[in-house]
């Protein structure tokens, strides 16, 4: 894999056609691994350059603690990876050099809609939102992990490319996304189990499933050293309609989060900085017996806005969140225990979108857009505009610049 990634960067120069494999804007473990593995797969089947591109700024990788852990565990240096702020997709498209495969999402973010003409294939496990097209094969199946579908393709078409490193990347993504393959978590499907078992059988030296999951969970939930803004940005999606809302997943108990010093002032500053009317904060933690605990908090300086959203969430039935109000030390924060522990953000977001559509009054789907940029500085889930507070001003790397940079990396020696 290291040799492949180095060659990808080294080949990024004038002349060849680029086949870019692009994960979604969350760039979680599943998205990262799916992009790396599928690009590697494509590169072994043809002579066309297949380039895995992480759909975040390079500086945002700091917030992906589980991604960094997995890269270290599999011996891959983050320096070998390419990030969204290091390759100009629009310039490649204008030059007629771009072919785009989407993994772990099936529609481009609205800010990338002008790249639609370059999309040639889709592999995803989310709800299908893409319009059918004879020129773009679409594989969408609601399994627990997109890496399961990538593994299936590799096993069926090119099983010989699987080695210990690639298998461990794929296996880790499936185990993490499927919550250690536990049926009670509501994520795993028979196909996920089938291909996890296939990898275990072929590569008996893979880390034990339980230990691997726990190590990745510990890394994912490690928010030590992050300030409030970074915690909110670590795993956030934005939704806009009549209001601009942010929905953040916090890997900490709600009680601990609400006790942070100057929290309400920090939440207010965050909303003002990024232009949000309301913050919806979903916490996840675990009991000693590893049972999930979900809590939810709603923040807005507008009592009307806060009360309307809170009431809508309380009354939601598809799914019912089973919210139980709990005490909050902050007057502008409404807090709940969430009885339905299976209702992750993926299931709460449609409720929020329905609320916004009702506020619009006409129910048109186009009125509500997820992760709409609208000039707001990016989050780790939406890192496509300038001015990211986590962006340390790294220089843009053109295709030509990559040649020299990669040559230097290659001189260090790769596996």
UniProtKB/TrEMBL annotation:
<dbReference type="InterPro" id="IPR001667">
    <property type="entry name" value="DDH_dom"/>
</dbReference>
<dbReference type="Pfam" id="PF02833">
    <property type="entry name" value="DHHA2"/>
</dbReference>
<dbReference type="GO" id="GO:0004309">
    <property type="term" value="F:exopolyphosphatase activity"/>
</dbReference>
<comment type="similarity">
    <text>Belongs to the PPase class C family. Prune subfamily.</text>
</comment>
<keyword id="KW-0464">Manganese</keyword>
<dbReference type="InterPro" id="IPR038222">
    <property type="entry name" value="DHHA2_dom_sf"/>
</dbReference>
<dbReference type="GO" id="GO:0046872">
    <property type="term" value="F:metal ion binding"/>
</dbReference>
<dbReference type="InterPro" id="IPR004097">
    <property type="entry name" value="DHHA2"/>
</dbReference>
<protein>
    <submittedName>
        <fullName>Prune exopolyphosphatase</fullName>
    </submittedName>
</protein>
<keyword id="KW-0378">Hydrolase</keyword>
<keyword id="KW-0479">Metal-binding</keyword>
<dbReference type="Pfam" id="PF01368">
    <property type="entry name" value="DHH"/>
</dbReference>
<dbReference type="GO" id="GO:0005737">
    <property type="term" value="C:cytoplasm"/>
</dbReference>
<dbReference type="InterPro" id="IPR038763">
    <property type="entry name" value="DHH_sf"/>
</dbReference>
<feature type="region of interest" description="Disordered">
    <location>
        <begin position="360"/>
        <end position="393"/>
    </location>
</feature>
<feature type="domain" description="DHHA2">
    <location>
        <begin position="213"/>
        <end position="356"/>
    </location>
</feature>
């Amino acid at each position: 894999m290291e040799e492949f990634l180095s060659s990808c960067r080294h080949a990024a120069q004038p002349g060849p056609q680029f086949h870019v494999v692009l994960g979604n804007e969350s760039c979680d473990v599943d998205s990262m691994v799916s992009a790396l593995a599928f690009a590697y797969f494509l590169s072994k089947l043809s002579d066309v350059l297949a380039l895995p591109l992480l759909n975040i700024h390079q500086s945002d990788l700091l917030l992906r603690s589980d991604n960094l852990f997995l890269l270290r565990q599999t011996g891959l240096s983050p320096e070998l990876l390419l990030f969204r702020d290091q390759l100009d997709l629009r310039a490649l498209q204008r030059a007629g050099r771009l072919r785009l495969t989407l993994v772990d999402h099936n529609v481009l973010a609205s800010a990338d809609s002008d790249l639609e003409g370059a999309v040639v294939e889709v592999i995803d496990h989310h709800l299908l939102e893409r319009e059918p097209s004879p020129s773009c094969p679409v594989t969408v199946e609601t399994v627990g992990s997109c890496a399961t579908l990538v593994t299936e393709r590799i096993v069926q078409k090119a099983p010989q490319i699987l080695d210990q490193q690639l298998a461990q990347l794929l296996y880790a993504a499936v185990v993490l996304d499927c919550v250690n393959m536990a049926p009670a978590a509501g994520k795993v499907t028979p196909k996920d189990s089938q291909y996890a078992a296939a990898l275990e059988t072929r590569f008996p030296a893979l880390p034990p499933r339980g230990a691997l999951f726990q190590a990745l969970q510990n890394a994912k939930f490690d928010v030590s050293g992050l300030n409030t803004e970074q915690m909110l940005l670590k795993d956030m999606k934005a939704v806009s309609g009549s209001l601009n809302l942010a929905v953040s997943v916090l890997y900490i108990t709600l009680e601990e989060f609400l006790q942070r010093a100057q929290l309400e002032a920090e939440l207010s500053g965050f909303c003002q900085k990024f232009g949000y009317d309301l913050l919806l904060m979903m916490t996840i933690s675990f009991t000693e017996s590893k049972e999930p605990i979900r809590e939810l908090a709603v923040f807005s300086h507008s009592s009307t806005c806060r009360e309307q959203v809170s009431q809508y969430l309380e009354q939601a039935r598809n799914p019912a969140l089973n919210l139980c109000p709990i005490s909050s030390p902050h007057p502008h924060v409404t807090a709940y225990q969430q009885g339905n522990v299976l209702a992750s953000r993926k299931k709460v977001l449609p409720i929020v979108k329905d609320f916004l559509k009702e506020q619009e009054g006409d129910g048109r789907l186009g009125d509500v857009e997820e992760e709409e940029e609208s000039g707001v500085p990016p989050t780790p889930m939406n890192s496509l505009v300038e001015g990211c507070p986590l962006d340390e001003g790294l220089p843009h790397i053109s295709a030509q610049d990559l040649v020299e940079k990669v040559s230097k990396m290659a001189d260090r020696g790769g596996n």
